[in-house]
């Protein structure tokens, strides 16, 4: 069941986010090295939870959670660009220990419906091209995302 976010959901979705991004942050640490990783992700493995918290506090109406058998198993945050008419899916994850298939697709469907209700014409999502983001890319393609651009980010120690 997809429902609107409630304040008391925050610790659970922060925990899901931190656990779900564990592999991605391991990849970042390997690519960036310790010094750059620690500068960019000062909370280490808790960075994603902090990002989720900031979004929930700033725009609590732009967060949905998914419950199965009364337990939160996933969440999705999003933004609405009223000028461009583009809704953007932001941080989202399914509890890595959930075991229920289709949770992500349920959440994306609910967000797409919200986007339409709010007058958005397109949906957008940004994800990495690395191996750590492969599952996310496949989920977004299953949800119907069919146009993309690529970018690369370089870093240089000064």
What does this entry look like structurally?
It is a single chain. Strand 2 and strand 3 (71-81) form a beta hairpin. Helix 2 (22-32) packs across helix 3 (34-40). The protein has one domain (2-142): 3-Layer(aba) Sandwich (Aminopeptidase), CATH 3.40.630. With 158 residues, it is of the alpha+beta class. The chain has helices spanning 10-20, 22-32, 34-40, 47-58, 103-117, 134-142, and strands spanning 2-4, 63-68, 71-81, 86-94, 122-125. It starts with a strand and ends in a 16-residue tail after the last helix. Helices cover 41% and strands 21% of the residues.
Brief summary:
By secondary structure, the chain is α+β, with helices and mostly antiparallel strands.
Topology:
Layout: E1 2-4, H1 10-20, H2 22-32, H3 34-40, H4 47-58, E2 63-68, E3 71-81, E4 86-94, H5 103-117, E5 122-125, H6 134-142
Parallel strand pairs: 4-5
Antiparallel strand pairs: 1-2, 2-3, 3-4
Helix pairs in contact: 1-4, 2-3
Poorly predicted runs are none
H-E string: EHHHHEEEHEH
Spatial strand sequence of the major β-sheet: 1-2-3-4-5
What do the pLDDT scores average to? Answer: 95
Q: Outline the biggest β-sheet.
A: 5 strands, mixed
CATH fold descriptor = Aminopeptidase
Apparent shape: globular
**Which structural class best describes the helix and strand composition?**
alpha+beta
The CATH H-level superfamily is Gcn5-related N-acetyltransferase (GNAT)
Number of strands: 5
Identify the CATH class.
Alpha Beta
How many domain modules?
Answer: 1
Question: What is the overall number of helices?
Answer: 6
Distance between the termini: 49 Å
- Measured as a percent range, the helix fraction is 40-55%
* Rg computed from alpha carbons, rounded to a whole number of angstroms: 16 Å
The second-level CATH architecture is 3-Layer(aba) Sandwich
SS strand fraction: 15-25%
């Amino acid at each position: 069941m997809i429902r609107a976010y409630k304040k008391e959901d925050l610790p659970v979705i922060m925990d899901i986010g931190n656990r779900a991004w564990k592999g991605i942050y391991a990849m970042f640490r390997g690519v960036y090295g310790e010094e750059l990783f620690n500068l960019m992700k000062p909370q280490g493995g808790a960075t994603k939870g902090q990002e989720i918290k900031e979004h929930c506090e700033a725009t609590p109406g732009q967060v949905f959670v998914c419950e199965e058998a009364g337990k939160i198993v996933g969440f999705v945050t999003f933004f609405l660009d009223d000028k461009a008419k583009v809704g953007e899916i932001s941080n989202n994850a399914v509890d890595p220990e959930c075991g229920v298939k289709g949770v992500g697709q349920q959440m994306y469907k609910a967000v797409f419906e919200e986007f339409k209700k709010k007058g958005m014409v397109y949906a957008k999502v940004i994800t990495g091209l690395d191996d750590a983001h492969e599952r996310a890319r496949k989920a977004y393609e299953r949800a119907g995302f069919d146009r993309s651009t690529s970018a690369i980010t370089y870093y240089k120690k000064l």
